[in-house]
Amino acid sequence: MAPDMLSLSSQFPILVAIAPLLTAPICALLRGKTAPWAVTTIASAYAFYISLQLLLTVASFGPISYELGGWAPPWGIEYVVDLLSGFMLVLISGVSTGVLLFARESVTKEVPTSQLGLFFAAYLLALTGMLGICITGDAFNVFVFLEIMSLSSYALIAMGERTDRRALTAAFQYLIIGTVGATFYLIGVGLIYMMTGTLNIADIAARFPEIEGTRPILAAAGFIVIGLAIKLALFPFHIWLPNGYTYAPSIITAFFAGTATKVSVYLLIRYIFTVFGVNYSFQGLELMDILLPFAVLGFLTMSAVAIYQTNIKRLLAYSSVAQLGYIILGIALANETGLTASIVHIFNHAIVKTGLFLSVGCMFFVVGSTYLKDLEGIGRRMPITTFGFVLGGLGLIGVPLTPGFISKWYLVVAALEKGSVIGYGLVALLMVSSLLAVIYIWRVVEVAYFRDMPEGTVKEEAPISLLVPTWLFILGSFYFGIETSFNVGIAKAAAAFLMGGA
Amino acid sequence: MFALETHVALSLIIPLVGALGIAITSSVPNIRETVTLVTSVLLCLNVFSILPSIMNGVEPVVLLVELLPDIALMLKVEPLGMTFAAVASSLWIINSIYSIGYMRGNNEPRQTGFYICFAIAIAATMGVAFSGNLLTLFVFYEVLTLSTYPLVTHKKNADALKGGRIYLGILIGTSIGLFLPAIIWTWNLTGTVDFVKGGILDGHASAGVTGVLLFLFMYGIGKAALMPIHRWLPAAMVAPTPVSALLHAVAVVKAGVFSVLKVVIYIFGIDFLSETGAAEWLTWVAAYTLIAASVVALTKDNLKARLAYSTISQLAYVVLGASMATSMAVAGGALQIVMHAFGKITLFFCAGAIYTAVHKTEISDMRGLGRQMPVTFIAFLIGSLSIIGLPPLGGSWSKFYLMLGAVEADEIYLMIVLLVSSLLNIAYLLPIVARGFFYPPLGQSDEPVPVGYEKSDFSWRNIQEAPLFCVLPPVLTALACVILFFLADPIVRLIEPILTP
Q1: B4 SS3 class
Q2: Cβ separation of A442 and B168 shorter than 8 Å?
Q3: Cα–Cα distance for residue pair B251/B341, rounded to 1 Å
Q4: Do B176 and A446 touch (CB under 8 A)?
Q5: Which of A138, A248, B366, B448 has minimal CB crowding within 10 Å?
């Protein structure tokens, strides 16, 4: 399948971003319960199909470069698909499509029917933004997509206002903090443009060694790293995340938990390894000393905080911040195994956490609350959903046969490869954090199975249209925890490619 | 019937299919229990069909799935695992009969879930027994922990909740916190996690690292219940007695000490361990556990708690055997896995039979009960004698080999430890039987009888045993204790090849 300008497949790189973008305004005009959802799902599924095709092409023929509007880079905008970005595209569009299968009945219950068109339009824009960030090879274009994603996600989180008015303040908080992050990123890109005169990422990377010692570049790197750290909710910039995840509509939480922060992690990896290069990042910037403590503090404190949550969505949100700590730790270790661990955990955590949030969505659908006190005896009330939640929880803990185990394995190997007291200490801290995960998951298990159902409630499962997508993710997580050639294979190859100084 | 490899794989598949069958037939209890029984018989036949090939030195390998690049989930049958699988699968049949009697006799709720979890736990036990590398062992070890959690907390009350917390907290905590890092570290040092005869660490780890690794492994394998991480075992006694009997006297705890033996023999290597002397501390810890747990057992009035502490003490025998790192001692450890299994399951069966018949759990309430339940108490006596290690019962051989091992290792004081422990065993086990037969039942007193006019306290009218399904199993396992006395030689010959490099 060699790229041929006349066939549709040669246009795939632009189609993957344009398809949801162009569907969004159409969606906004549609009325009713089914039409906006159906159009959105089709667009997302199409993006998933294209992403798979792109990944397959990249896997066999190497990176694809696409010139937007026929303008050759570095003057025109270039779209680049390599192993890592292809992997991210598949992950994002796949999670999105799976979540949308769940969305129909869940959303009609949580969002007013009159707003469904707009809701799904915003959803498509968020999807566009995420896919665009991954595929574009242009630093400013990244900012454009970042803003598309962020603005639509502020709106989507605010849509949770019907069930809890606090969604509005959560969205506002996210708006302020998210804008700060995006602005930092923009400042960084501006400084780089000033020094290099180019916005094409590959071009910047090629010119980088000449200017890497300069002060503006140091400032640029600082702004970009901090800006992205805010966007990806690295501890201690995570404040917006638990609120946003808790009060957003169920499917939005599930969708964002799997993808939104991961996109920023992807960007961080791009900048650290592709633009700045390993040498500058870890010797010039000494990013290890900066990222490592925050990563460790992140997964330790946030896992501990998760234990004390009374709302199951908030519990999982804090757990997400902790898991992001693992991902950043892998990056901070600056070796190939660590980077593999990060990339594979981006994927593994997305699947597990989406499955968990979807099962919480099922509970919310039936019970109308996500507070633990309202979910007493849920194991007997909704046995299928709850069992799915427990299996997903095992994935978070990192029990073998779940993908969490695979990530942890690589992370520990990476820490041991680092050696010295720090390496061994990290292994110990990782284990402590896993045990904290056991505690916060088991708190839910005990509430679900050992408390009696509230008076007057009966056994009542979520509808099959919610259960099927939920279990798709749960079983999928076990699939990728046992047959790991896809996720580990690509993560390893991508890590080798990134560490190879490319 | 099939290829040898297929039989190995079937050992995992049969109980899992059985679990599915139990789920499907959940609405018809009689068929459901039939499924359990048929599954257990099939599994046992299947396991024993592998035995002849293993005795001929064949080592079948089954590749399950490539979990990580270069590390596959893999089954490989070797003599030690064969022994463990044979014990667990044959006892599962007897235990299934017992479960039916016990669960029905006590009208326990949620029986379908009980049988499903049980079958999954057995599948995991087979996986542990046949694991071909550390990762596979770890995977099934964790599956075993998680599948037994619902069984431990079966009663779903506050006690069960608390017991379950301790159970899961210690077992998951140690396995994830220590065992897993030890495995990954081994992988990092040697580039392999395969079980290789003679060990894989020789030449890759310094004496200091070996000591740390040994610590991580021994305390990571929490199921071996070495002090001070033994608390989960008494906590697990909140489970229904069939669970305590098969899982917490045989499958789970033996999976622990079995893993200890596997790690010592195939990862460290007996010779490497004795050269470095890294295991010396372990000998002391095991010896301490052995005595201390027996002393604690003396103080327990609850029968199951006493048996639990007895188990902790008996498990330490196996760890002791492993730590002495001589071939005789390791053989003693391996024998102990078999012999103790049959002895202890008999005792648990009896405890459950007593509970089913008269709903008594405290030893002080059981006086005179032997007159009412003579069969149960005689079975209890035989099981006790086997655990104490008296001939002609199987348990005597494991103690015998351990003592030989102590001599071989030139550590005479260990013989004293073993002897003291046997005395303690007598002190906490035999009074139960003696009170049962020689004391009058609670609230009654025997009339004074002049010398020369004594008559038997036994009368057919007084006999009120538990249901047949509860009484038959301990009788069978007690008989097995006797038979095993004569079977020690074939077992030793089976495991001999792994002891001599």
Answers
A1: helix
A2: yes
A3: 9
A4: no
A5: B448
Among B residues 82-141, those touching chain A with beta carbons less than 8 Å apart = 135, 138-139
Question: Which ipTM was obtained for this model?
Answer: 0.86
What is the token pair recorded at B442?
A: 């609670």
User: Global pTM?
Assistant: 0.91
User: For tokens 């925890």, what's the residue?
Assistant: A481
Q: How confident is the model at residue A140 (pLDDT cuts 50, 70, 90)?
A: very high
Interatomic CA distance for residues A95 and A118, integer angstroms: 21
Angle at B273 between CA B272 and CA B278, to 5 degrees: 130
Under the banding of pLDDT at 50, 70 and 90, the label for residue A8 is confident
For the stretch B249-276, pLDDT in tens is 888 999 999 999 999 989 988 888 888 8
The 10s digit of each residue's pLDDT in A194-211 is 999 899 999 999 988 888
Cα four-point dihedral sign A194, A198, A201, A202: negative
A410 within 8 A of A341, measured Cβ to Cβ? yes
**Token pair of A252, please?**
């939005």
Best CA proximity match to A88, nearest among A330, A262, A338? A262
Q: Looking at CA atoms only, how far is residue B264 from chain A in angstroms?
A: 23
What is the rounded distance in angstroms from the CA atom of residue B108 to the CA atom of residue B111? 7
Q: Alpha helix (H) ranges present in A368-463?
A: 378-381, 383-397, 403-418, 420-450
Least-confidence region, from A66-70, A124-128, A273-277, B473-477: A66-70
pLDDT digits (tens, 9 = 90+) for B388-421: 988 889 889 999 999 988 888 888 888 898 899 9
What is the DSSP pairing of strand B71-76 with strand B61-68?
antiparallel
Tell me how many degrees the CA angle A265-A267-A273 measures, rounded to the nearest 5.
100
Place of tokens 């019970």: A367
Could you tell me the end-to-end alpha-carbon distance of chain B, in angstroms, rounded to an integer?
A: 33
Q: Do B168 and A492 touch (CB under 8 A)?
A: no
- The type of residue at A7 is S
Q: How far apart are CA A136 and CA A450, in angstroms?
A: 50
> How many of the other CB atoms lie within 10 Å of CB of A424?
16
Q: How sure is the predictor about B247, in pLDDT bands with cuts at 50, 70 and 90? A: confident
Contact (CB<8Å) B172/A435: yes
Quick: pLDDT tens for B358-367.
Answer: 888 888 888 8
What type of residue is A234? Answer: L
Nearest to B188 among A394, A416, A488 (CB): A416
Residue A2 distance to chain B (closest CA, Å): 30
High-pLDDT (> 90) share of chain B, %: 40
Q: Kindly give the pairing relationship between strand A78-81 and strand B61-68.
A: unpaired
Q: Which two tokens stand for residue B361?
A: 């759990």
